[in-house]
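Subject: design request, 193 residues
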């Protein structure tokens, strides 16, 4: 049936929302070829209608609707793949895992590199000249200070104001979120609720 392959691409996206499947270039190529055939048939029928009294308006209209649907499915498939790649950049940084990279087309990899470069340049330009890492916090903090527990012996930790704190195993501290966030991500500190 017409447009089934295009619909299969959308179904694939719904089956695996948390995983990037390999780009189905052959299917995309087949859909584009099918669209070209439908377009040529429409052109021929339009020429026939113009040159004679043949009534083909319904056929032309149905083909046009099918072409539009196929186009929408292709655009939705490609757009959702790019949005998945964009989410990966925000979640994991500028380096993708090899399994994600192998499932990306060359054009998607180029798009990812350009997006990463643009995001990095933008983050460097804001924050009063020192830059601001927008990927650091996925949710706005509820408070500027957090209570943390040290999971291992780290030694002396100097805060931005010059205060030195000795981080020993199982010690608890009340620190600025911005200063201890990196240690939390490294697994040295844990946020105590």
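Subject: RE: design request

Done. Sequence follows.
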């Amino acid at each position: 049936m017409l447009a089934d392959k295009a619909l299969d691409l959308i179904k694939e996206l719904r089956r695996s929302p948390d995983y990037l499947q390999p780009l189905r270039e052959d299917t995309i190529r087949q859909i584009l070829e099918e669209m070209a055939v439908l377009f040529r048939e429409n052109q021929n029928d339009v020429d026939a209608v113009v040159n004679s009294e043949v009534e083909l308006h319904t056929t032309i209209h149905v083909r046009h609707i099918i072409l539009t649907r196929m186009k929408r499915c292709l655009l939705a498939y490609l757009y959702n793949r790019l949005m998945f790649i964009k989410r990966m950049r925000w979640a994991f940084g500028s380096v993708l895992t090899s399994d994600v990279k192998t499932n990306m087309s060359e054009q998607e990899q180029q798009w990812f590199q350009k997006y990463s470069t643009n995001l990095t340049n933008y983050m460097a330009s804001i924050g009063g000249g020192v830059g601001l890492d927008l990927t650091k916090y996925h949710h706005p903090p509820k408070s500027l200070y957090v209570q943390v527990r040290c999971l291992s012996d780290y030694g002396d930790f100097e805060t931005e104001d010059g205060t030195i704190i000795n981080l020993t195993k199982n010690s608890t501290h009340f620190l600025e979120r911005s200063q201890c966030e990196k240690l939390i991500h490294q697994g040295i500190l844990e946020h105590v609720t």
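The domain at 4-125 is CATH 1.20.58.1030 (Methane Monooxygenase Hydroxylase; Chain G, domain 1).
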